Queue: 2 jobs
Job 1
Amino acid sequence: MKIATAIARYLLGLIFAFFGANLLFHFLPNPPLPPGMLKDFMTVMAGTHYIEVVGFFQFACGVLLLVNRWVPLAIACLAPVLVNILTTHLLVMHGGLFPLPTLAVLLWAFLFWRVLPAFSGLFQAKFSA
């Protein structure tokens, strides 16, 4: 199980480090966007520089996963990023779930399950001081 966890951590780290770096440094060519909601959405994301913030969090969490430091923090920070990726694919792109976002969610869920004891304090019904 340790090998599967390491493989999942490395794969998820590579995915987010690579695509986060692409959002920061734009080294992959982007095809022209079709007119409509997706183009409007991406124009707003790029115009407000929000896309760089998302890219920073993707890259930073990917690096944390690759160097095996603060993995629960990286997992916690990637959760809202994954929700936004899935929401964009389903509601804005109308393309359904592509293989890479689905793979990222499955890898994230597996890693979350493996580090679940780190989140045990979050799942308590009552707090006792």
Job 2
Amino acid sequence: MAPLRIAIAGFRHAHILDLYRRVSNDPRLELVALCEENFAASLLPVNGIAATHTSFESLLREVDCDVIALGDSYGRRGAQAIRALTAGKHVLADKPLCTRSEEWDAIRALATRDGPRIGMMLDLRDLGNMIALRESVLRGRIGSVQSVVLAGLHPLLYGTRPAWYFEPGMQGARSATSLPTSWTSCHG
């Protein structure tokens, strides 16, 4: 069986680096392109990775791939997913997949049973503590489980997070610039 051909678009969050390593080390997968439109703002320079494309549109036109993995800024992923699905490509996205409800509606309409699909990078399941939790539940070590809630809240960490985190529209309906000053100074 031919390897699954994967292109990665956007290196703005560390989760995409995990996918890059996994794809690079799995013989069932072939990494066919890396796209980053803003090299200086990406994680590529510090990780010694070279982009093959500097335009998402050129990636769509020029690269023969099965899947496009999205790791760009949060506010850009929805439009990229729509473009990739429209081009007939499956999409694998870091979370969040999109930040606007109208993008979600379009993505849902494009990802059909017989057409391109959406997958989410839920890489925490590979962490040791999550594997141990799963084994404990399956073996009944903690009794009958009624509910499980896992949270991985990320503070905004102003001054340490990439600048795009604080650009209007990059975090969803409310951006860091629309948060009350007391919230950003207290939690940032």
